[in-house]
Specification:
The structure holds 2 protein chains of 2 kinds. Helices cover about 55% and strands about 0% of the residues of chain A. By secondary structure, chain A is mainly alpha-helical. In chain A, a hairpin with a 2-residue loop joins strand 3 and strand 4 (about 285). In chain A, about 55% of the residues are buried. Chain B is of the alpha/beta class. Chain B folds into 2 domains: about 1-30 and about 190-230, no CATH class; about 40-185 and about 235-395, Alkaline Phosphatase, subunit A (3-Layer(aba) Sandwich). Chain B has helices at about 10-20, 55, 65-70, 95-105, 120-130, 145-150, 155-160, 190-205, 205-225, 235-255, 280-300, 370-380, 385-395, and strands at about 40-45, 55-60, 85, 90, 105-115, 160-165, 180, 260-265, 305-310, 330-335, 345, 370. In chain B, strands 1, 5, 6, 7, 8, 9, 10, 11 and 12 form a 9-stranded mixed β-sheet that branches. In chain B, strand 3 and strand 4 (about 90) form a beta hairpin. In chain B, helix 1 crosses helix 9 (about 205-225) and helix 8 (about 190-205) runs antiparallel to helix 9. The termini of chain B are far apart. The chains are: A mainly alpha, B alpha/beta. At the A-B interface, helix 13, helix 20, helix 21, helix 22 and helix 24 of A face helix 5, strand 7, helix 8 and helix 9 of B.
Chain lengths: ~475, ~400
């Protein structure tokens, strides 16, 4: 065990614990947490509050996006380039001139909606700031874990790129030490998830809209709720449950710009899209209480033993080992069931489990843990977006953009590959340039202390420059593995 | 200090290290059936998200097709007509390169195909497709990696290992045989002296990370030597597919490069607004078509000895859904492309699209197992016996016979 009573004076084990459960040691962390590293981590649970900061809410963002879309469309239609006015004579002259000068036809700058990129930038920088300011980072690690569990991908389009950060702030962050059922409901009915998995387009075939427009179901969200967010793929559901849940959640959509059914850009339950009637999911019948039919099914899913098993396994795999100890998984599962998904209790159970404190490092920091850990250690806030996103994109771990709704893979084997390690090496060299005149040996003492091996200590001490020393520290096995 | 890739000392050091990495832990005890003098190349492209086979290669001759597909149905009429392959099937109009290759006998379409997996989860479906196992849950190794392990250790295909393109290699190539990776560059390269210091530290403290880093640097060197890589990003999904294919072609074309490679392209999960002759799916198919052209151009003389196999985890619903897209289904298409392909044909035991012919009255019924197609290619290209294929590459599949005559 890393930090039993007997060994709690051992800063070596503390350095490992802070990387395994938090964002890594820096400054005086090792000294401060020496007497009680578990308490140092768990103070995040007791004092948890999730601030919105200065950032906009999802309805504000989506309303601005819609407004800007209209402005861009108008600007496009009014463009005055001869090429775009399709004025025959002007176009012919422009083409002649282009031919004569052997240059391409001039094109007017197309007006473009910059809200998705700008919002994404603000959200990434805000999230970086939170990681830089976090004490141990235990709560942040839980936010990232749940954010990846309820994954959305910015690549899907402007709406997701604009709201992925807000989704994490609004649907994930408030609930990381709250109730799983609340997080589940908040995540599935958030506009970002509704857009990401197409529920805004799913229409009950016998709803008013369905009968009028001959439109119907889209089962994308329903399937992923069962397969990824709750029961897990072997959790005991079938195709009929998927289709039935798809019927239950018809009606959850995003209010349009006219705001007839709610604040534009907020999520609403539109009964005119909802498939009426009682629906049967996993053998139980749910009466049609409109939006509460969804709540009732979600509450049952949140209490289901398969959900407890699925969450327990994922959490143990994330923090401890790709192939987590079955006793740990069983304990987390039991706590999840007994407390009806109390995530503060689940987090405490993780920190209280001896298996979670094994000294063997069976995980490697994910690219996000590595990049944010390095930025925290070096300490200078990023002056622009690229400081954060270039290494993350290169390492295949772009913020809020996994390849699919199952999120980023969460195994050491996935990240510790030839291309992955080569790119980590390049990223370390890049990040180390930010260290300026910081002394690499001081950073080593702050981040690893006695946990650094003799060889790592020597390698860093013998570096030919400060920056090389910092790059070597970031690549050290004790920094990379946790 | 020069860049790593231009430094001879480092080049030697890396090659030596790679040699050690490629040392084998066992020697196969079976006779290797040589497939002749051909120095073959095998590239597998995995399309993640479930490609809609009924739009990629539309069964225009099936009387139920248009009724099921409504507004996204393809047609040989109109402004963007589908490209007829035979009297029954037509290729999506976004794929003129594939049509050209088909016409010169270098492309085969396999239709109504799938693995043995029927449950419609992307992630389990991809795991089954890539692991080559009969069911989900066994994801330690991929079938292309086990393919290398069936070859004699001294054999050059086995010696060179497999290439997995992307920041992390796809499951299909992961396993005990050496795997290396490559992805279009985003970060600048770092100095060679720094690499050596890290490798020294890893040798002393963490040989496992050392082996990974060495292999990655070695591949980077090879890629640089084969011609500067286009490092620029941007240009959308189609441009990204082309860049990745160009990089893969350079590495696979090298005499001392890997002979087999795997690529994965994401984004095929077209639940809503899939589009017909134009639109979302058309963009992706156009990107894939560009990747074929990039592979053909990049492999140059090796193209004649190359098979590119394109597979996806499963297909999509036969009927268009409520949101002008399609949901998860079963039967779909696979492509075989390359100079070594005996092409110009559509291989299909067509099940028909009448409601009673559909799988669970919903999906195109799979009638050809994709593993029989892969087995046929591997047996012709690398001379692997049916027994090895059924025991090691696709375990537990003695009843799935390799399809004969896929390779010219």
């Amino acid at each position: 065990m890393i930090a039993t009573e007997a060994s709690s004076k051992d800063s070596a084990n503390i350095a490992l614990a802070l990387a395994r459960f938090g964002l890594g040691a820096r400054g005086n962390d090792l000294a401060e947490s020496r007497s009680d590293v578990r308490g140092f981590l768990s103070q995040d649970i007791e004092g948890w509050r999730s601030a919105q900061g200065h950032l906009q809410s999802t309805p504000e963002i989506l309303a601005a996006l819609q407004q800007e879309n209209r402005r861009v469309e108008l600007a496009r239609s009014l463009r005055t380039s001869p090429y775009d006015r399709r004025d025959g004579a002007l176009l012919a002259r422009a083409m002649d001139e282009a031919d004569a000068s052997a240059k391409p036809l001039p094109q007017a700058e197309a007006p473009r909606n910059v809200i998705p990129q700008d919002t994404y930038r603000d959200e990434v920088l805000a999230r970086t700031q939170v990681a830089l300011e976090a004490k141990s980072g235990f709560a942040e690690r839980m936010v990232w874990f749940w954010s990846n569990h309820f994954a959305v991908s910015t690549s899907k389009g402007n709406q997701i790129q604009s709201t992925a950060g807000a989704f994490e702030r609004e649907a994930i962050r408030p609930h990381v030490f709250g109730r799983f059922a609340d997080m589940l409901f908040a995540a599935e009915t958030h506009p970002a998830m509704i857009y990401y998995l197409d529920n805004n387009q799913s229409i009950g075939p016998n709803s008013n809209a369905g009968l009028k427009q001959r439109k119907g179901l889209n089962e994308n969200l329903a399937r992923e709720i069962l397969e990824l967010h709750t029961l897990g793929v072997s959790g005991g559901y079938g195709q009929t449950d998927v289709t039935s849940l798809a019927r239950v959640i018809t009606g959850w959509t995003v209010a349009g710009p006219e705001g007839k059914l709610g604040r534009p850009g907020s999520s609403i339950f539109n009964v005119g899209l909802h498939e009426p009637g009682e629906h049967r999911v996993l053998g139980a019948y749910y009466p049609d209480y409109g939006p509460d039919q969804t709540r009732d099914v979600f509450d049952a899913l949140a209490r289901h033993p398969s959900t407890a098993q699925h969450i327990a396994y994922k959490m143990a795999r994330h923090f401890v080992a790709d192939d987590p100890p079955p006793t740990l998984v069983a304990r987390l599962r039991d706590v999840f069931l007994e407390t009806e998904g109390d995530l503060a209790e689940l987090s405490r159970a993780l920190l209280d489990s001896p298996e979670a404190w094994a000294p063997e490092t069976r995980k490697i920091r994910t690219p996000q843990e590595f990049v944010f850990g390095a930025l925290r250690l070096i300490g200078t806030p990023p002056e622009n977006l690229w400081v954060v996103v270039s290494p993350l994109n290169a390492l295949g771990h772009k913020l809020w953009d996994p390849p699919g709704p199952n999120g980023y893979p969460d195994t050491a084997a996935h990240w510790a590959t030839p291309e992955g390690m080569k790119t980590r090496f390049y990223a370390s060299a890049r990040l180390a340039q930010r260290a300026g005149r910081l002394d690499p040996m001081e950073l080593l003492e702050a981040s690893l202390g006695d946990y650094a091996s003799k060889e790592t200590r020597q390698t860093v001490a013998r570096a030919e420059s400060r920056q090389q020393g910092v790059a070597l520290l970031l690549m050290a096995p004790e920094f990379q593995r946790r | 200090m020069s860049d790593l890739c231009e430094n001879n000392v480092s080049r030697r050091a890396l090659l030596g290290a790679a040699g050690a990495l490629f040392a084998w832990s066992f020697v196969p005890k079976f006779a290797y059936a040589a497939a002749g003098a051909r120095d073959a190349r095998f590239v597998c492209i995995v399309l993640r998200g479930a490609m809609d086979g009924l739009s990629a290669v539309a069964p225009l001759g099936d009387p139920d097709y248009v009724g099921l597909r409504e507004s996204i149905a393809l047609s040989t009429e109109g402004r963007t007509p589908a490209l007829p392959l035979d009297g029954f099937f037509a290729l999506h109009p976004a794929m003129p390169n594939l049509l050209r290759l088909y016409k010169v006998g270098q492309a085969t379409v396999v239709h109504a195909t799938s693995t043995g997996y029927r449950d419609r989860s992307h992630f389990d479906g991809q795991d089954v497709l890539e692991s080559g196992q009969p069911g989900p849950g066994r994801t330690e190794t991929g079938w292309m990696n086990r393919l290398l392990l069936t070859l004699p250790a001294g054999e050059r295909i086995a010696q060179r290992g497999a290439l997995g393109i992307g920041p992390v290699p796809p499951l299909i190539v992961r396993g005990r045989a050496p795997v290396t990776g490559w992805a279009p560059a985003i970060l600048p390269k770092a100095k060679e002296d720094l690499a050596q210091r890290i490798l020294d530290l890893y040798d002393a403290r963490d040989p496992e990370l050392g082996a990974q880093l060495r292999s990655g640097l070695e591949t980077e060197h090879l890629a640089s030597r084969m011609g500067g890589m286009a490092g620029q990003s941007g240009g959308g999904a189609a441009a990204a597919m082309r860049r990745v294919a160009e990089g893969a072609a350079r590495l696979v074309n090298a005499d001392d490069g890997p002979r087999i490679a795997a690529l994965a392209f994401d984004g095929w999960d077209t639940h809503a607004n899939e589009g017909g002759a134009t639109g979302q799916l058309a963009q992706l198919l156009g990107g894939l078509d560009g990747a074929f052209a990039a592979l053909e151009a990049g492999l140059k003389d090796r193209w004649a000895d190359t098979v590119v196999m394109v597979v996806t985890e499963f297909g999509r619903t036969a009927r268009v859904n409520g949101t002008v897209g399609t949901d998860h289904g079963n039967g779909t298409v696979a492509f075989l492309v390359g100079g070594a392909v005996k092409g110009g044909r559509v291989i299909a035991d067509w099940p028909g699209l009448r409601p009673e012919n559909l799988f669970e009255r919903r999906d195109l019924r799979p009638t050809t197992d994709i593993r029989s197609v892969a087995k046929g290619v591997l047996s012709d290209l690398f001379g692997i016996t049916a027994a090895r294929l059924a025991d090691d590459v696709f375990p537990g599949t003695p009843d799935l016979k390799p399809i004969q005559g896929l390779v010219a």
